[in-house]
Amino acid sequence: MRRAIRRSPLCNWALRWIVPKYRKLAVSVDTEIVIEGYPRCANTFAVVAFRMAQPRDVPIAHHIHSLSQVRRGVRRRIPTLVLIRRPSEAILSYVIRKESADIGWALDEYVDFHRGLLALVDDVIIADFHEVTSDFGAVIRRVNQRFGSQFVEFDHTEENVEACYRQIDSIERFFAGGREVRATHVARPSEQRSQQKQAFAAELESPRFASRLAEAERLYDALRRASLSTECQHSARP
């Protein structure tokens, strides 16, 4: 059911009005940029870093984790940034975060999202997790070059990155009702996360998921290649 909702523009539009959370995150008439991706692809870091860099409050559509949200941004000609991450890394991080998530379900979600994204690669900017977390300023620069926008680039210094993580921790505490943030709910490395990752990795790499994981890897690699090709084409234009 959830997969069908995420793929359906009509269902996504209905959710926007039914669920208050979605109203704030979905594309609207005021949206100036869409930042989307499969969960655990540096979505929160990108949104926090982007906001930190801007001198004003820029309306952002984000964290729906839906292909329909990306399509709506493209259709409305809104600058759209889609974040990707190698499937094993994203899926393991996701199931650790959700705690009760099923690896097979998370893998299917990954394949669905990225398969649909291939058809949109010419209309969006795609940034890999490691690009976002190592030089997000360069990612914003690519957005500006592609869409003619004038967003301020994030200054990716150690101090600014630490400020981003402090803000992310504050966000997590807010949603945890002021309680201490669990290690499973933050992106920073921890001993607990490392142990859980090893256990889930053994399951993900088992023969049961071999064909689906191979498909996920193929889609990730295809998106990287297609994105690079599109960027070269745009940079070559006069």
Q: Could you please describe the fold and organization of this structure?
A:
- There is one protein chain.
- This protein is an alpha/beta fold and 238 residues long.
- The chain has a single domain, classed as Rossmann fold (3-Layer(aba) Sandwich), CATH 3.40.50.
- The chain is built from twelve helices and four strands, in the order H-H-H-E-H-E-H-E-H-H-E-H-H-H-H-H.
- It has helices spanning 2-7, 9-18, 20-25, 43-53, 67-75, 87-98, 103-117, 129-134, 136-147, 158-175, 191-204, 210-236; strands spanning 33-37, 60-62, 80-84, 125-128.
- A four-stranded parallel beta sheet has the order 2-1-3-4, sandwiched between helices.
- Strand 1 (33-37), helix 4 (43-53) and strand 2 form a beta-alpha-beta unit.
- Helix 6 packs across helix 7 (103-117), helix 6 (87-98) packs across helix 11 (191-204) and helix 7 packs parallel to helix 12 (210-236).
- The radius of gyration is 18 Å and the shape is globular.
- The chain starts with a helix and ends with a helix.
